[in-house]
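Students often ask what a 'structure token' actually looks like in practice. Rather than answer in the abstract, let us consider Amidase AmiB2, a protein of 472 residues. Its sequence is given first.
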Amino acid sequence: MELTELCFAGVARQARAVRNGEVSARDLVAEHLRRIERIDPRLGAFRLVFAEQALEQAAALDGRADEDLPLRGVPIAVKEDIALAGLPTTKGTNAARTPQPADSAIVTRLRAAGAVIIGRTRMPELGLWPFTESSWAGPTRNPWSLTHSPGGSSGGSAAAVAAGLAAAAIGTDGAGSIRIPCAVTGLFGLKPQRGRVSLAPEPQMWGGLVVAGPITRTVADWALVADQVHGAAPGDAHVAHPPRTSFTEAARTDPGRLRIGVSLRPWGPGIAIADEVRDAVQDTAALLTDLGHDVVRLDPPMRDITASTQFAARYLHNAHLARAGMEFPDLVEPRTRAVGELGRRIPRGAVRWAARDDATLTAYANRIFASVDVLLTPALTRPPIRVGEWDGRNVVTALLAAAQYTTFLPLWNIVGNPAACVPAGRTSAGLPLAVQLVGRQHDECTLLSVSAQLERARPWADRIPSGLGHAN
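Now compare that with the structural description of the same chain:
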């Protein structure tokens, strides 16, 4: 396999190539760096590229060939809200200057497994939007169409993986921020159970809404990376139950016959679902039926008005806290300040009301899993948005548009369940579509088994964005 092809082959294949001596870790990393140099000026996926350090780490790994390292030499990118030793945690802003004293638990575990951290990927300021754009950094673009967004807030991570600039990336998800970019770039992303992957040195982020996890080309790649990074660390506010098996084993295991509920009911009134999105869900439901599952239509109310109002209050309050917690809060862009100001104005009593019903809503939402094993929904309500599509809107109408776009996603951040974004075909214009699969609490394993079954029946990872293979 030649090097450019290997850049799109994913984590497991790259690790095997290094392990078998098909390619050195240094040569593999060097090829990714060459691709970044050629392609990323068009995409804007990376905020920082660690070229010299990555080559040094790869060369050192080549000198440790006797060690059994599952991710030996694999180049992985990390979103800019994940702590890296010696760098400020910028969170999409210019408002942080103090370097972190140590790597996050996630990065420490990746390095211990032999991964090479190749760069830091872009996000919108404070992760507030389902697109990755800022007035000072410009837009990050979708490798499938440079006029479209790769989503957000982990947009840089997804763009890097989809373009073959990294084998995998780490993203975070507080209201869909792993699932959104995977949905619009044709990748697999699974928001893990809350507490599955430690966020140390942070005990939690955004009041427990945010989780971290891999963004990968295939289900098996996600499982391999997640097997290396999951687990609690001292001080974590949340700890997930141990998985029943390794994630790699789950991805290899047939799920058996499951009862799968299908819901096309948005989380709130008057939200339209595009025909192509509806078709993708129905096609996936038909495929799951063909694969032997018992698929039923199920549109349970999820306390839509109350719960979505509570989420909006928490989101805005957390945006205010996030901005206020930056070293130089006045350096964020006007749009970010406006969102933070909305959060500042929410009365404290309303904030307490918004956060107090988590346990009740969690129990209520999870009643659905008494009758089904997995819930199938749209990932997003429409195909990918264009770069700058909402620029002309004031901040309130932009927030409402974002909430409608992502309506099927935030509930599962509130209640903590694992939820996967699975590629599900293309729009008439050739842009990726996806569906969401939601599992029982602490049960990523079933989602991995079903997602891998769908991938075998409907492969997606062999598709490469036009012009990004042999780049000139």
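One point worth highlighting: Residues 8-457 form a domain with the Amidase signature (AS) enzymes fold (CATH 3.90.1300.10). Ask yourself how you might have guessed this from the sequence alone, and why that guess would often be unreliable.
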